[in-house]
Here is the input.
Amino acid sequence: MIPLQHILALSAGLFAIGVYGVLSRRNAILILMSIELMLNAVNINLIAFAMYLAPDRFVGQIFAIFIISIAAAEVGLALAIILRVYRTRATIDVDNIDLMKW
Here is the structure.
């Protein structure tokens, strides 16, 4: 069995890459992919702690499935918004999108 510290280090690395992607990217699709990477890092943490603390119960896996389903809904909605913005503004650069400004 893999030690918990190794799994947590992997998860922290994935989460850090996701945060860097959100903060440094200008493309809305890449920002969305970085958010998904952060959610997957959280899923790894949930499953690792569940297997470490209560290996006979499936609590971490159930929470991970809920997060995956919420992430799928979030991706669907976000892609619909991004496509709509692209059709009106012809760009998905988040610095150039100023729909809420007068």
